UniProtKB/TrEMBL annotation:
Keywords: Hydrolase. Pfam families: FrsA-like (PF06500). It comes from Streptomyces noboritoensis. PANTHER family: CONIDIAL PIGMENT BIOSYNTHESIS PROTEIN AYG1 (AFU_ORTHOLOGUE AFUA_2G17550) (PTHR22946:SF12), DIENELACTONE HYDROLASE DOMAIN-CONTAINING PROTEIN-RELATED (PTHR22946). Coiled coil: none annotated. This is Prolyl oligopeptidase family serine peptidase. Belongs to the AB hydrolase superfamily. InterPro entries: AB_hydrolase_fold, FrsA-like, FrsA_esterase.
Length: 424
């Protein structure tokens, strides 16, 4: 009897009818399952910067049933391993460019293979293997770039954070430098495909890094996310200013996805940035998952009534691949023990009393079909008091998905033109 109450309280039909975190349908790409569709688009979209080849994406996804996470992992792992062998063989034969290209794609495909492996990531040796191969293949490819790529260990509270310094050219003349971090689930290596490649082509150095809660830092050091992200970014800026070729007057902070909120928080408390790009803007992270659960279930979570919230969330997760992924990943990234705890861990992540303290010019990005953070960019833009702009990417030109996945070149053009126009 009690279980029937929980099922009815969740209203599974609502889960099927509401688009994930928003009301407008997202682009369908190869899958009906919205989570699989978006992740396939995300993986394929990195082709613009050498991280995928469309034919490889199509053939990998061809035999993966909708919502079958085990099949997804097997398919992407097999494709990644094949490209890994291709890259190694090309390198052994002296084919430098071919090796670099194959290894970059392998890195992205290993990342995709690991995406849905969240049942017990702290003890999942296959997840560890995939993550390690993603890092190693990227490192091997980076050593073959035409411009220098320098691995970094950034001092941070008695330990270090991993990073890469991508140099656009010689360091004898200071250049503008992008400091870039991802968000909820992106990897250090993926940051090159998202922003790094576009910045390098335009003469920017790039310092990309991972912080607490993010992939290798969480996996290897056990550090969970923290809301005072300025405590993470400030030592990264300190480190950047010790590096050759970095122009201290032309630093750009770039935060992607959940990093759009984290980056805004950091920019409010560290005034050394010439500009900040929020890709995309998020004002209140806790609000996002609440859009697909009933108000009374959200109240149970907020009141820690986990004896009823827990079973109801379990039913909700069984009806939504994306919600299941979000909460399982949150348990890992926030160090929470249950889905309800993972939801509550999101509560401190907002820009209340923060956004108005940002003083540098800030570009807030939005996407017409953003099913992750619909309406959030407008809230951020409205709260800003510094020089600000809002760019809304349109579905009609193919850039309307969350973080402009699938439209990297158009996204790079709009953002870096905006920076150029401000003399950065």
């Amino acid at each position: 009897m009690m279980r029937r109450v929980y099922v009815r309280a969740y209203e599974p039909e609502r889960c099927r009818s509401v688009q994930w975190f928003g009301g407008r349908p997202a682009v369908k790409f190869l899958f009906d399952d919205k989570a699989f569709s978006f992740q396939a688009l995300r993986t394929a979209g990195h082709a613009a910067c050498g991280g995928a080849d469309l034919g490889e994406v199509l053939v990998t996804c061809e035999d993966v049933p909708d919502g079958n996470e085990a099949a997804w992992c097997r398919a992407w792992s097999a494709t990644a391993a094949r490209l890994h062998r291709t890259g190694d063989d090309a390198l052994a034969a002296g084919h430098r460019v071919s090796a670099r290209e194959a290894l970059l794609r392998a890195s992205n495909y290993y990342r995709a293979a690991d995406f849905f492996r969240l049942d017990d990531r702290d003890h999942d040796r296959e997840s560890d293997r995939l993550a390690l191969h993603s890092r190693e293949t990227f490192a091997s490819a980076a050593a073959l770039f035409d411009t220098p790529v320098v691995p970094q260990r950034i001092p941070y509270e008695g330990t270090t954070l991993p990073g890469y310094l991508f140099l656009a050219g010689p360091t004898d003349e200071p250049r503008p430098t992008v400091i870039h971090h991802g968000g909820y689930d992106s990897t250090l290596e993926e940051l090159y495909f998202m922003v790094g490649a576009g910045a390098l082509r335009r003469g920017y150095h790039v310092l990309a890094f991972e912080g607490p809660g993010q992939q290798s830092v969480r996996r290897e050091q056990g550090l969970a996310f923290r809301p005072d992200w300025e405590a993470v970014v400030t030592p990264v800026v300190d480190h950047a200013l010790t590096l050759p070729g970095v122009d201290a007057d032309r630093l750009v902070l770039f935060g992607t996805s959940f990093g759009g909120l984290l980056g805004a928080r950091a920019a409010a408390f560290d005034r050394r940035f010439a500009a900040c790009v929020l890709h995309n803007g998020i004002y209140d992270f806790y609000r996002l998952p609440l859009t697909v659960i009933p108000a009374h279930l959200a109240e149970w979570v907020a009141e820690s009534r986990d004896e009823v919230a827990g079973p109801a969330l379990a039913v909700a997760m069984s009806h939504s691949t994306q919600l299941r992924w979000f909460l399982r990943h949150g348990m890992w990234a926030f160090g929470a023990k249950t889905p309800a705890e993972a939801l509550r861990a999101c509560m401190p992540y907002n820009l209340d009393g923060v956004a108005e303290h940002i003083t540098c010019p800030t570009l807030v990005l939005d996407a017409e079909n953003d099913v992750v953070a619909r309406g959030e960019a407008q809230r951020v833009h409205a709260a800003l008091r510094a020089e600000k702009d809002l760019i809304r990417f349109a579905a009609a030109d193919g850039s309307g998905e969350h973080c402009q996945e699938g439209a990297a070149l158009h996204f790079h053009q709009r953002v870096f033109d905006w920076l150029d126009e401000r003399g950065i």
